[in-house]
Amino acid sequence: MTRQLCERCQFTPSTCICRAVSHINNKIRVIILQHPSEEKIAKNTAKLVNLSLTGCQIVKGENNNDFAILKSLPLESTVLLYPNGKAINLDEKAKSAEINNITHLIVIDGTWKKAYKILQLTTLLNQFKTVSFKQLPTNRYAIRKAPRADSLSTLEAVAHSLFLIEQLNPAPLYNLLDELIKKQTQHMPEHVKARYLN
Q1: Where is the DTW domain positioned along the sequence (predicted)?
Q2: In CATH, what is the architecture of 22-187?
Q3: pTM for the full model?
């Protein structure tokens, strides 16, 4: 017997987050490269971004063949969000020409290990400039544990990037994340919930 799912958000009726979804008109087009293992994870936030942003696309895969879309993106105005030694810090250059000219933001959706694997297998990504943050926003996504201190969910990373690049108000995306957390923890015993949320 298959579980009933909401047609729009693909969560069960008791965990449906549609009432918190806002349609956000973003100028910078967001391309999310999603590792296949992330798709079935209930706590994955990429689909929340896709539900909210009018300019967003999720592409699933692991390598150049899967991500052929990268060949069609403009080289000069597309950036990859990834913290490496060459990354431009968005929070330091928020008003510079190189930030103002961005038209496409590529975001890798997966654990650090899977994101690194995508980076190694997808050599097409090497052609794009990378961007990151010097100061990370506070991580709000306590229900999915990450091994690194500089971990943000895909939703948080996109929300903060768009805030810095195009001054897009991140509140609607954060409200949606809060709704997801509320719905995913609503049936947890209080002592278990406290472990996640405190």
Answers
A1: 2-189
A2: 3-Layer(aba) Sandwich (3.40)
A3: 0.89
